[in-house]
Amino acid sequence: MDNAESRDMKTANRRERQAALEEADNSIGVCGWILVLFSILLTLVTLPISIWMCIKIVKEYERAIIFRLGRILKGGAKGPGLFFILPCTDSFINVDMRTITFDIPPQEVLTKDSVTVSVDGVVYYRVQNATLAVANITNADAATRLLAQTTLRNVLGTKNLSEILSDREEIAHSMQSTLDDATDDWGIKVERVEIKDVKLPLQLQRAMAAEAEATREARAKVIAAEGEMNASRALKEASMVIAESPSALQLRYLQTLNTIAAEKNSTIIFPLPIDMMQAFVGPRA
C-alpha cells in the first residue's frame, strides 16, 4: 500500500509540474501576442509557400515539444503525425520515446569488506514525459548515464563480496528503484538494470581458488574416510556370514577365480580344494 501511495503521489506531482510548464499562452504578454498575430498574418499572405514551413511531421515513436516565443505551448507534446507551427515565433524539439540501452562502464568499487572489484552493467530506460525531459534537464541521456555510474558505486559500496557475487538480482532491483526515483523529475522511466560482470583482482582470484581447492580436498578426505568406514563394516558383516556357513568361503573363492580369469591375463592359477587345508587348521574353539 505504501508503494502504491508513493507512486500515486509521484504521478500527481509530475502532472502538476507539467501543468505549470504548459501555462505559456497566458503569460506571453501584449508584445508576444502582437508578434504571434503578425506571424499569422505573414503566413496567410505568403500562402501557399508558407504552408511548407508550417506543417511538420513526427514519427510514431517521437513527440514534439513546441516553444512559442521561448515558452512551451499549451497542450504538451504533439504527435505522432501532423502538427502546425508558426514559422517566425515557434520552434520545436523532437523527443524519442523508444527504450534506450547503454552500458555502464566498469567501475572500481570498494566493497563493505574492503575488497576492490570492477563491476559493469546495462540500463534500459525510456522517456515517459517528453515535456519534463526537455524542460527540466539539459541532457537527459547524459544525466542518466552519469547517475547510473554513481548509483552503481553507492549500492555496491554497502555490499560484501559474497553478496555481490550471489545477489545480483537484488542489487539490480535496488539500482532500478533508486534510478527510477531520481529520474522521475526528468520524465524518465528506468525499466530494467542488469549487472553484467564482476571482475576480481588476480591475487584475490588465486586466493579464492586456493581456498576452494583446499575445501574440496578436505571434503574428499572426509568422503574417503566415510567410505573406508562403511567398507570395513561391510567386510565385518561378510566375515560373520562366511563364519556361519563354511561352504560360503568356497563359493567366494570360486567367484574370485572367475573374476580373475575374465581379465585375460597370463597368470596361472592352481586352485586347491578348501578341504585339503583343513588338516593345517586347528580345531575350532
Helical fraction: 40-55%
Note poorly predicted spans. Answer: none
How many distinct folded domains? 3
- For the record, the CATH architecture of the largest domain stands as 2-Layer Sandwich
Question: Briefly, what CATH class of the largest domain?
Answer: Alpha Beta
Q: Order of strands in the sheet with the most strands?
A: 3-2-5
Which radius of gyration do the C-alpha atoms yield? 40 Å
Q: Give the N-terminus to C-terminus distance in angstroms.
A: 85 Å
Short account of what is shown:
With 285 residues, the chain is an alpha+beta fold. It contains nine helices and eight strands.
Protein architecture, described:
- The chain is an alpha+beta fold and 285 residues long.
- It folds into three domains: 31-95, no CATH class; 99-200, Tetrahydropterin Synthase, Chain A; 206-264.
- The chain is built from nine helices and eight strands.
- It has helices at 2-21, 29-45, 51-54, 130-135, 140-156, 161-166, 168-182, 202-244, 246-261, and strands spanning 55-58, 62-68, 71-72, 81-84, 90-96, 100-110, 116-127, 188-199.
- The strands form three sheets. It has a three-stranded antiparallel β-sheet.
- Helix 5 (140-156) crosses helix 7 (168-182) and helix 8 (202-244) crosses helix 9 (246-261).
- It is rod-shaped.
- The N and C termini lie far apart (85 Å).
- The model has no long low-confidence stretch (mean pLDDT 80).
- It comes from Lepisosteus oculatus (Spotted gar).
- This is Stomatin.
- Residues 53-212 form the Band domain.
- Its main location: membrane.
